[in-house]
Specification:
homodimer; 10 strands; 2 domains; alpha+beta; DNA-binding; three-stranded antiparallel beta sheet; Arc Repressor Mutant, subunit A
DNA sequence: TCAATAGTGTCTGTTAGACATTATGGA
DNA sequence: TCCATAATGTCTAACAGACACTATTGA
């Protein structure tokens, strides 16, 4: 059944690279991990040649874990894109992954957090990828625990709401937010409280989703165009 | 593009192939386009070596257009997967696209519609891809005009509702469905009617989305786990 | 006439958002 | 004390689903 591609793949430059859009909330803003110093013209996203052996998601997970020094809070594949032949590695394809990490994650050496909405100048293709990744986080945060994985193990409900507001790009109603959260059985209170500046201390919660069955969302028509 | 994959693959093993999950509603069931006869052990999905030049989405669009003889009603990239080294083309990566076409689309020579929920025996990886593709259609049909593109230019509201019911896997309430559709300004009635068998004739509609701004969906927590 | 499907009006329980109020700390 | 934030109760408009009903065709 066919010849092994391994020889050809190892002889020539790798066919594809992995690229990472890693997001966190830093200083109250959405931040993305960028590599700095490679070129003078601006930043770049973390990338790595692809090891063609084994499942793609597992390869990416290993790479990101090694890069960050810890497993990301959440990660998914955004998709594959052609490099346009301009990538220095000689790769033809880029497979982009999107990950989120808690706010207290230190950037690895040579990397830094950049504001996701005013990033350093990026090549047009990378800027497009970044925008698509943030849009993907926004669209999936109701189905995946993205916001919860951008927080430490315990957090206040106001912190959680701020994550949602940052990713959705709009203010949310506090009482409504908490009612819906309560009804979803996703968090449970701890007996710890945190006093932050002036006002009343806030209770700390932890992400503890309880299985609920038979939750069917109604049909919605939300096409914009 | 569009030539027989076997020759191109043997001439120079490409780094990646394109694979297509093309869905339509045929005989009241969700169907997927399968290639037949290559092997005795079951069907396979349409695939093609990837032309590494140019944007990936454009290459895929050209290939699918040539394969079907017409542009698909809607298409998006599902993602990239490793072949596990077992693909006869020698490719390492598979980039899967998902497309939908109207019910009256004839399968190209050598292909056939297979029931998406009881397909011919597929290799495990392809079965997984098919399931993921159908799940992707289900999850995105509220944000993209997927159901509308599986219908001819004019259609009855009952036909539209049947598409939604097939993809969502559950029955929908007729009055609610039409109310929500009306509120979304997505269809407009034509002055044509269609008499189908016994009952009262149904009015034909066309997909004609009108821009509406300021439509913000509420925050929802729909994590299953 | 009956059967079958299209299309619509009404009612009701649920929910999202607005508003108001209380609670509890720091300055 | 004043102020800022947390947390919650109440009201209202909108909405989803159930139900019933009318409309219009073929058999």
């Amino acid at each position: 059944m066919g010849d092994r591609p391994a020889t050809a793949a190892r002889a020539r430059p790798g066919p594809a690279i992995l690229e990472l859009v890693c997001c966190a909330v830093v200083d109250g803003r959405l931040a993305v991990l960028t590599e700095r110093g490679r070129t003078a013209r601006g930043g770049t996203l973390p990338w790595s040649p692809l090891d063609p052996a084994g499942p793609l998601d597992a390869s990416a997970a290993r790479w990101v874990r090694g890069l960050l020094g810890r497993a990301p809070g959440w990660m998914t594949q955004l998709g594959a894109f052609s490099t346009g032949g301009r990538h220095p590695s000689g790769a033809v394809l880029t497979v982009v992954y999107v990950a989120v990490v808690p706010s207290d994650t230190e950037p690895p050496a040579g990397f830094a957090w950049s504001p996701a909405f005013e990033p350093p100048p990026l090549p047009p293709r990378r800027q497009w990828v970044l925008d698509a990744a943030v849009a993907g986080l926004r669209d999936r945060m109701d189905l995946a625990p993205i916001a919860f994985r951008m927080l430490p193990a315990t957090f206040t409900l106001s912190e959680l709401q701020r994550i949602y507001e940052l990713l959705l790009g709009r203010r949310l109603h506090k009482a409504s937010f908490r009612r819906a959260l309560q009804a979803a059985f996703l968090v449970e209170p701890t007996d710890a409280w945190r006093s932050e500046g002036r006002g009343r201390p806030a209770q700390l919660y932890r992400y503890a989703p309880r299985k609920r069955r038979g939750v069917r969302r109604p049909v919605r028509f939300e096409l914009l165009a």
